[in-house]
Design goal:
The protein is α/β, with parallel strands linked by helices and 589 residues long. 42% of the residues lie in helices and 15% in strands. The chain is built from 24 helices and 19 strands.
Length: 589
């Protein structure tokens, strides 16, 4: 209460004489000075007034129903804009909810700042039992790139500057800023407060690789007989789209986009090898990694997917030198940002005659064409109940017709199949679960995409994934955002036809309520809802939603038997010989 009263007095001072400012307004002014004009938050003690003052000062404050989704939105805002997205939460439980998103942002290399209210340091250190008492700074440090605590209002300017620079410099990531509640009400001279603010200059300077590193990479490329370029979401974040495209087209190499890099070059580009993924990963002899890490998403660069061990030479572009040799030997490490490395390679290629052998290009093209023809027939089926291919065929066409639509995608089968079926035509127009494969990012990502770009968003959700974040449809409706959600409703996790292995009355652990009416949930908040069971009904509903720009939820009934356990990563489930012997049902998974 004291902090609120001090804030009211400070606000009166600003209005009447312009002589005083306080922690609330200094924090808002510091963010605005550095081009941050949107806050994603959940109001509550002690940051409720901060959101009100931010709105009064012309900032956009998007209030969520749960801090985790506000945090996911902030992290996606950072990915889309290269400016740290800001999430603001209450203390203790609210902070912990936001911390999941900070950790996810750091893992994905997205710039984000989590600002949480907290108890006073002297109370926390003596464990005196304050309201929502917790040593938040100590808890945050292992999960983010940097963490800072403020004590005095006059330090707000420098703290915000440090948080911004930490979030975007080098390898981007999540930053935590701890704000004790009483500090927000501290007052100081308005002119001195203005002088204390810091505008960050060039927080993420371009980093050009060394000449020796470029020469080494060119030598590796010159020896390639079956080259491949793998483009990762780091390249999408870098926003050097023209340079990436020029490098790909000048080399003539087939390229494989990771899911969130789709659209830097359109998936329909003649050099795109996505439809021949297995072939190019297995048979390539030189692989250029552009902003892509050789992690679990690429089987760590090992195993049958990659062919004979040691048969490949890697050129890796990454802003962080420590990423090199993380799983396999890197023959030519290029430490720098994607744009600078691409520009340097383009310069060095002049006169070198670098080009892939025609038979390799023809082989990749032929395999891709064959696979696409096989897939095309599956996408055009009219099965009732719908399978994933029929439904995704409809959505593929919807994105083709409206290529400026941003696609958000999460789920198991819903994610895995959409990733390979729905073409993306523009950079940063696909957002999904990222490096960790986190479920529940969908609504936060959709909200951030709509808020930051103003574009139409199509969120394609598995019914399980939607369950993590579904209440945020109220947020979508409240802010009247152009978001169309399509839920692939197969009545359960992975598949909706599971059985209780114990034979009891309880449903199987992976089964949901049959034919749940998620569409009525959207209608309850004033949005548009549709319950569809055929490809034609889905097509009509999606076309109507995208044309209207209204908040819409389309509940698409999918055959419960159409999916498979864990989508395409079922191999990550531990296998039990004992379970196979005791439970015959296990053989069906």
């Amino acid at each position: 209460m004291a902090a609120t009263l001090d804030a009211e007095i400070a606000d009166e001072g600003r209005a009447d004489a312009g002589q005083l400012t306080d922690g609330f307004h200094l924090l808002i002014d510091a963010l605005k000075l550095n081009g941050i004009n949107t806050i994603y938050n959940v109001p509550g003690i002690p940051i409720t007034d901060l959101g009100r003052y931010a709105q009064a000062q012309g900032m956009r404050v998007i209030s969520f129903r749960h801090e985790q989704h506000a945090g996911y939105a902030a992290s996606v805002a950072g990915f889309l804009t290269k400016i740290p997205g800001v999430c603001m939460t209450v203390s203790a439980p609210g902070f912990l909810n936001g911390l999941t998103a900070v950790a996810n942002a750091t893992t994905n290399c997205w710039p984000m700042i989590l600002i949480s209210g907290s108890s006073e340091r002297e109370i926390v250190d003596l464990a005196q039992g304050d309201y929502e008492e917790m040593d938040q700074l100590a808890i945050a440090r292992p999960f983010c790139k940097a963490a800072y605590r403020l004590t005095y209002a006059q330090d707000i300017g420098i703290a915000v500057a440090r948080a911004i620079r930490s979030a975007v410099s080098g390898r981007p990531g999540g930053v935590y800023l701890d704000i004790p509640g009483a500090m927000m009400g501290q007052t100081m001279d308005a002119e001195e407060g203005k002088k204390s603010l810091v505008k960050v200059i060039d927080p993420a300077p371009r980093q050009r690789p060394s000449a020796d590193a470029i020469a080494r990479a060119i030598e590796v490329m010159k020896g390639a007989e079956r080259p491949l370029i793998v483009i990762g979401k780091g390249a999408a974040y870098d926003q050097s789209d023209d340079l990436v495209r020029e490098l790909v087209e000048k080399t003539g190499y087939p390229f494989l986009p990771m899911s969130m890099a789709k659209g830097i070059l359109p998936d329909t580009h003649p050099q795109c090898a996505a439809a021949a993924r297995s072939l190019v990963l297995k048979d390539s002899d030189v692989v250029i990694m552009m902003g892509a890490r050789i992690n679990w998403l690429l089987s760590h660069g090992k195993g049958r997917q990659w062919g004979e061990p040691g048969a490949k030479r890697f050129v890796q572009i990454d802003i962080d030198a420590e990423e090199m040799d993380s799983n396999v030997e890197i023959a030519a490490p290029l430490v720098g940002d994607v744009g600078s490395c691409a520009a340097a390679l383009l310069e060095a290629m002049e006169g070198e005659g670098i080009a892939p052998p025609k038979d390799w290009v023809d082989q990749v093209h032929s395999k891709a064409e064959t696979n696409m023809e096989k897939m095309s027939a599956r996408l055009q089926n009219n099965n009732v109940p719908m399978d994933y291919h029929a439904a995704l065929g409809v959505l593929k066409q919807a994105i083709t017709d409206r290529p400026d639509t941003i696609l958000v995608n999460e789920g198991a089968n819903t994610l895995d199949m959409a990733r390979s079926i729905i073409n993306v035509h523009k950079p940063r127009h696909r957002i999904d679960v990222g490096t960790w494969g986190v479920m529940g990012i969908g609504m936060g990502a959709a909200i951030a995409a709509a808020v930051e770009t103003g574009k139409q968003v199509l969120a394609v959700e598995g019914d399980s994934a939607f369950g993590f974040c579904g209440m945020e449809v109220e947020t979508i409706c409240r802010y009247k955002l152009p978001v169309c959600i399509v839920i692939f409703n197969n009545n359960g996790i992975y598949k909706g036809d599971g059985e209780n292995w114990g034979g009891g009355d309880d449903p199987a652990t992976t089964v949901f309520v049959d034919d749940a009416r998620y569409d009525l949930m959207m209608e309850a908040f004033g949005g548009e809802g549709a319950w569809v069971k055929t490809p034609d009904e889905l097509r009509q509903a999606v076309e109507t939603a995208l044309a209207s720009g209204k908040p819409t939820l389309i509940n698409a009934a999918i055959d419960p038997s159409a999916g498979k356990e864990s989508g395409n990563i079922g191999n990550l489930n531990p296998q039990s010989v004992v379970a196979q012997a005791l439970y015959p049902q296990a053989s069906k998974i």
